[in-house]
TrEMBL record:
Belongs to the metallo-dependent hydrolases superfamily. InterPro entries: ACMSD, Amidohydro-rel, Metal_Hydrolase. One of its GO terms (molecular function) is hydrolase activity. This is Amidohydrolase 2. Pfam families: Amidohydro_2. The keyword Nucleus does not apply. It comes from Lentinula detonsa. The lineage of its organism: Eukaryota, Fungi, Dikarya, Basidiomycota, Agaricomycotina. Keywords: Decarboxylase, Lyase.
């Protein structure tokens, strides 16, 4: 399969029917509410963010129905999708329910992926990222059981995870057995934001969802990944595979500043085996940043990490190879639909065009980001 030029979407979401039913039953966040419009028609809305503007976002079959996902894939030339439950996963549940649902939802997702596409005339394939019951108070054994189940599911290639961990974030040593099990199983962690940053930053103007989604989400990913780097997780688990949503947020732009702050901090300076910039080359990043200049910049920053492979800081050697090999196309479907109906979504076309137009990327780089890198990483 690797010789064909396939397009693979690694950032594409759903709410499985079991999860959507749970959200419909709830009266507190997160929830799905039904509104009756002026014309009498019913309208479901997804309310998952704190202080969600406009009473939530419209939610339709594209969030739940597999045929909708496949039609979307067909309309955008996507051959393979690695589908993940959308935020906020199981974060709001008590440990017992989170544990039970994580196992059921990973089973549901395996079935969703393995029972075959139903759009005629196509050979599209579905894979998935499972879920861990990663909530406060959960036992390590319950988390390990969920890792084992995902690992035993042939269509699940990793797991999607938020940034809260078991209550103290992802730099919590309590998660070490989980990182060990995930690494050992060869699974990839898709790190995805949900909480953003304090809403006080957004002021009083009604800017819709723009500030939390454009800035809050990527900053959350930036902070969580930086804390992971600072905690030495990548020194303890060098084979841990982490895929960052939204091209790693601001981390590429801030990585030299981070390295400098570490070097000048007496508490942290000698903690890590490598210069902070080294760890960026250990990450995988989706290519969901909507512009060719940003993609080119991020790949240059990843490529630069090979200059920092030794523990002596600022080793200024090493060739300039493209970091595109660690970047993977994504759509964030079904979020960001066009405001007026259109078969091809602007949010997707922009990301595909961005890949095509990165200065200095070869055809091989572009094909890698569109699909080849995912095929290798996930052994598809
Ligand atoms: N993309 C997501 O994955 N989740 C959101 O809530 C919004 C955009
Ligand atoms: Zn997403």
């Amino acid at each position: 399969m690797a010789s064909k030029r396939l397009v693979v979407d690694v950032h594409t979401h759903l709410y499985l029917p079991r999860y959507a039913s749970l959200l419909r039953e709830r009266t507190t966040l997160p929830k799905i509410i039904t509104r009756t419009r002026d014309d009498g028609r019913k309208d479901e809305r997804l309310v998952i963010l704190k202080d969600e503007p406009s009473g939530g976002r419209p939610i339709g079959p594209s969030y739940v129905e597999r045929d909708e996902k496949l039609t979307f894939m067909k309309n955008h030339g996507i051959d393979i999708s690695i589908v993940s439950t959308a935020n906020p996963w199981l974060d709001f549940l008590q440990p017992k329910e989170a544990h039970r649902l994580s196992l059921q939802l990973s089973d549901d997702l395996e079935e969703y992926c393995s029972t075959g596409p139903t759009v005629t005339g196509t050979s599209m394939q579905l894979y998935g990222f499972g879920l861990l019951p990663i909530v406060s108070g959960i036992s390590t054994e319950s988390l390990l059981e969920a890792v084992r189940q995902i690992s035993a599911s042939s269509h699940l290639k990793g797991l999607i995870m938020g940034t809260r961990g078991v209550g103290k974030g992802l730099d919590d040593e309590a998660l070490d057995p989980i990182w060990a099990a995930i690494s050992e199983a060869g699974l990839t962690v898709f790190l995805h934001p949900h909480y953003g940053i304090s809403e006080e930053s957004w002021g009083e103007k009604n800017n819709g969802h723009v500030l939390p989604l454009a800035l809050g989400f990527p900053m959350e990913t930036t902070i969580a990944t930086t804390r992971l780097i600072l905690s030495g997780v990548f020194d303890r688990f060098p084979s841990l595979r982490l895929l960052l949503a939204h091209s790693g947020g601001a981390l590429p732009q801030l990585s030299s500043r981070l390295a400098s702050c570490i070097d000048h901090d007496p508490i942290v300076a000698s903690r890590l085996k490598h210069d902070a910039r080294f760890y960026l080359g250990k990450l995988y990043l989706d290519a969901v940043c909507y512009g060719p200049e940003e993609l080119g910049f991020v790949s240059d920053i990843i490529a630069r990490s090979n200059r920092y492979e030794t523990s002596s800081k600022n080793v200024a050697s090493g060739g300039r190879s493209s970091g595109s090999g660690r970047m993977l196309f994504g759509t964030d479907h079904p979020f960001f639909p066009p405001l007026s109906s259109s078969e091809r979504w602007k949010s997707v076309v922009e990301n595909l065009d961005a890949i095509e137009n990165v200065q200095g990327w070869t055809e091989a780089d572009k094909n890698g980001v569109k699909g080849g890198n995912a095929i290798s990483l996930f052994n598809l």
